[in-house]
Amino acid sequence: MSVIAADIATSLRCPGCQAPVQERPNKYLCNQCQAIYPVVAGIPVFIHEPRSAFTIKECANGLTAAASSSPAPRRWRDCLPSISGNHGSEANFEEFAQLLLSTSPRPRVLVLGGRILGTGMEAFVKHAEIELVETDVCPGPRVKMICDAHDVPFADGTFDGVIIQAVLEHVCDPWRCVEEIHRVLKPQGLVYAETPFIQQVHGGAWDFTRFTDLGHRRLFRRFEQVSRGACCGPGMALAWSFQYFLLSLTENKWLRGCIRIGTELTTFWLKNVDHFLMHTRGTQDAASGFYFIGRRSDIILSDRDLIKEWRGII
Ligand SMILES: [Zn+2]
What is the residue range of 304's domain? Predict the structure, then answer.
């Protein structure tokens, strides 16, 4: 039995051919292309393998393993101060919530890459009127569906909002994913995105792309801008750069562990400097990450107009 609510189930579509799917015991069937999408531990796996870097089998195995394992114990390293600091997300999510609630009394929001609660989302998820459909390619405590952001298994115009936080750097084709976000949003639907600019490789092999402020704006060129700016500042970027500079000096596991601990203990304060830098012009050139809140539009921002939106310093 799937955990997908009945009202949203009518908007489910085959991620391969976009035809409606039918629920059967422990699976969904596409009547058009005959694809089968299993339901594992109550979580449907909507992966279109020909266009995905993931297979249904590995996603299903991940769900089975997660269902039978206990939560990972807290590591002592988690007690160290973090070198990362997001100074925008909490206020941005509140702005996003108010925008959603001004368009619908019960907005429906798709979360892509939402296996755990994103930074700054604690208050957002307490808005009981906002219905969340939390998805990811990997299992996690909040996941209600496994799907790939390159092929979102929902009909056109299903959602009032989409959240994609710290995900677009980890997808193979971020432009394709944003096309999908545009497709599944209602005509005036809203998107909230956060994506890094200066941040070293994280997530191993699953890390592909970075965006400048304008590069990020261009990614969402089919959206009218509500607001955009830095969410993680130059201090965080410097701390990450210092840590990874030292890490580049050795492959020794023990030394690398010492470097991580040492740099976290000595550079964690840099993120606090970002409090004073978030709205400076210099930060537009040096931020660790940017956010964008936009409204779905049929007008495409031209590259000529895009250039006029540059806010850095020569
Ligand atoms: Zn199909």
Answer: 79-308
